């Protein structure tokens, strides 16, 4: 795999047509008349350049990695090879969960460019949640995406030699793994340089940083994240990595892809929904919409378990829990399934908890909270998320089922956590 090539150059709206106008896979979508291409840079994420290119014949997304973290600037260098991992994750996800991720038209490793399908009129799910707009089929699709990618990317399904080669491919994503290991699992628990938080949270932050149980459990979760290469994960599966219309749901942006524990993507996603739930007082406080967010969380887990169980019963071709071991004992494989789901559930709760804490105390926060102008209100919303996050991390093995966890969220939302 190439690293910074001397030929690498970031694209701009001015140079893009000339630079990409001779690539067949792209002109097949946009036409060869580059004078008719219109380019807009729309990247609002933390890391990359993203362009929408429109022509009379179509639209394409061009995503290019920058050699540094866009959110911070060139004082934080970041290798271009993340585009390589995103490309490999996208093509695997497309095969495992067809129709739910953008089709890749073209990839240049040297230029760290991926040209891919543009979803329109989709918007980022986070914005939908702030506008209090519902999405039909959201939970079912997200649950299925999780089950299909998690099951089919693991030793439950894959040929193990192929999987081990794949683990070797993704293991080189050291710098992006390091971002998650640091920003999610360590920085929130001490006074790290890149941390920031809303002013009114000072006392609660001091309490959390003195909380031995929390810090030990957060690190047990970090050990799982770093050491348990169970399946190919999306790696950054928050509500900013989902694009939706009123009736359609797609998953984007797997540049943090890595082999990790099965509960990680699920937990990260659920944690983001619970934070969106706690942020609702900053966005209109519609009780019915808040209830809908909790329903979505419950349905994601239900959809995930239904699909994962179905795949367990019909596609178990890997080295784990082989059919032959359970011949004549149909209940044994069901027992193994149910215990495996319980393990995933407990891990997911823990990962949801650390995600909720880091999105409030570490470098990267969430728009649902950041956009609340009233600082006292924002602190109150964030404090509830921290309260729930702490309980999820520390008590994850005794939290009960999804309805009990949603009840906890409801209870916290009615009180003051500050
Ligand atoms: C420096 S990158 C900060 C965060 O943005 C990405 O979306 C990941 O969530 C990462 O942790
Ligand atoms: Mg992203």
Features:
418 residues; alpha+beta; Phosphorylase Kinase, domain 1; Aminoglycoside 3'-phosphotransferase, Chain: A, domain 2; 2 domains; 5-stranded antiparallel beta sheet; 15 helices; globular; binds 5-S-methyl-5-thio-alpha-D-ribofuranose; binds magnesium ion
Summarize this, please?
With 418 residues, the chain is an alpha+beta fold.
Layout of secondary structure:
Elements: H1 16-20, H2 24-30, E1 38-41, E2 48-55, E3 58-65, E4 68-69, E5 73-77, H3 82-96, E6 104-108, E7 113-117, E8 123-124, H4 125-130, H5 138-152, H6 160-170, H7 174-183, H8 202-209, H9 212-227, E9 231-233, E10 242-244, E11 249-251, E12 258-260, H10 263-279, H11 287-314, H12 330-361, H13 367-370, H14 375-395, H15 402-414
Antiparallel strand pairs: 1-2, 2-3, 3-7, 4-5, 6-7, 8-10, 9-12, 10-11
Helix pairs in contact: 5-11, 10-11, 10-12, 10-14, 12-14, 14-15
The structure holds 5-S-methyl-5-thio-alpha-D-ribofuranose (SR1) and magnesium ion.
5-S-methyl-5-thio-alpha-D-ribofuranose (SR1) binds at residues 46-47, 69, 71, 179-180, 183, 236, 363-364.
Strand content: 5-15%
Distinct ligand kinds: 5-S-methyl-5-thio-alpha-D-ribofuranose, magnesium ion
- Rounded mean pLDDT is 96
SSE order, one letter for each helix or strand: HHEEEEEHEEEHHHHHHEEEEHHHHHH
User: Could you name the ranges where pLDDT drops below 50 across 5 or more consecutive residues?
Assistant: none
For the termini, the CA-CA separation is 49 Å
Q: Supply Rg.
A: 21 Å
Structural class: alpha+beta
Instruction: Tell me the number of structural domains.
Output: 2
Q: What is the name of the CATH architecture of the largest domain?
A: Alpha-Beta Complex
Helix content estimate: 40-55%
* Strand order within the widest beta sheet: 1-2-3-7-6
Tally the helices: 15
At the third CATH level, what is the topology name of the largest domain? Aminoglycoside 3'-phosphotransferase, Chain: A, domain 2
CATH class of the largest domain: Alpha Beta
User: How many E-type strands?
Assistant: 12
Sum up the overall morphology in one term: globular
Name of the CATH homologous superfamily of the largest domain:
Aminoglycoside phosphotransferase (APH), C-terminal lobe
Q: What does the largest sheet look like?
A: 5 strands, antiparallel
């Amino acid at each position: 795999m190439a690293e910074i090539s001397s030929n690498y150059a970031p694209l701009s709206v001015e140079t893009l047509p000339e630079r990409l106008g001779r690539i067949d896979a792209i002109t097949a979508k946009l036409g060869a008349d580059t004078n008719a291409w219109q380019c807009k840079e729309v990247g609002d994420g933390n890391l990359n350049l993203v362009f929408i290119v429109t022509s009379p014949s179509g639209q394409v997304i061009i995503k290019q990695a920058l050699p540094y973290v866009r959110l911070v600037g060139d004082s934080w260098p970041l290798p271009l090879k993340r585009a390589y991992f995103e490309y490999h994750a996208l093509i695997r996800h497309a095969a495992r969960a067809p129709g739910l991720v953008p089709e890749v038209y073209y990839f240049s490793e040297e230029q760290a460019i991926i040209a891919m399908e543009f979803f329109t009129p989709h918007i980022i799910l986070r914005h939908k949640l702030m506008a209090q707009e519902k999405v039909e089929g959201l939970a079912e699709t997200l649950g299925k995406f999780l089950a299909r990618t998690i099951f089919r990317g693991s030793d439950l399904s894959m040929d193990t030699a192929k999987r081990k080669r794949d683990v070797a491919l993704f293991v080189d994503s050291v710098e992006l793994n390091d971002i998650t290991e640091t920003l999610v699992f360590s920085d929130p628990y001490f006074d790290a340089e890149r941390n920031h938080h809303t002013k009114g949270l000072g006392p609660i932050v001091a309490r959390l940083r003195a909380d031995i149980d929390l810090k030990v459990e957060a690190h047990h979760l970090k050990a799982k994240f770093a050491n348990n290469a169970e399946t190919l994960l999306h790696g950054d599966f928050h509500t900013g990595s989902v694009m939706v219309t009123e009736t359609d749901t797609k998953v984007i942006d797997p540049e943090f892809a890595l082999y990790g524990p099965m509960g990680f993507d699920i937990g990260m996603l659920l944690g983001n929904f619970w934070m969106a739930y706690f942020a609702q007082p900053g966005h209109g406080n519609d009780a019915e919409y808040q209830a809908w967010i909790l329903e979505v969380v419950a349905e994601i887990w239900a959809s995930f378990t239904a699909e994962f169980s179905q795949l367990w019963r019909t596609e178990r071709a890997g080295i784990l829990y082989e059919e032959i071991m359970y011949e004549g004992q149909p209940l044994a494989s069901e027992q193994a399934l149910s215990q495996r789901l319980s393990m995933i559930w407990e891990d997911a709760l823990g990962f949801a908890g650390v995600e909720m804490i880091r999105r409030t105390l570490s470098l990267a926060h969430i728009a649902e909270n950041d956009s609340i102008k009233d600082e006292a209100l924002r602190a109150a919303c964030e404090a509830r998320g921290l309260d729930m996050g702490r309980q999820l991390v520390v008590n994850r093995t005794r939290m009960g089922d999804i309805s009990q966890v949603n009840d906890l969220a409801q209870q916290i939302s009615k009180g003051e956590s500050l």
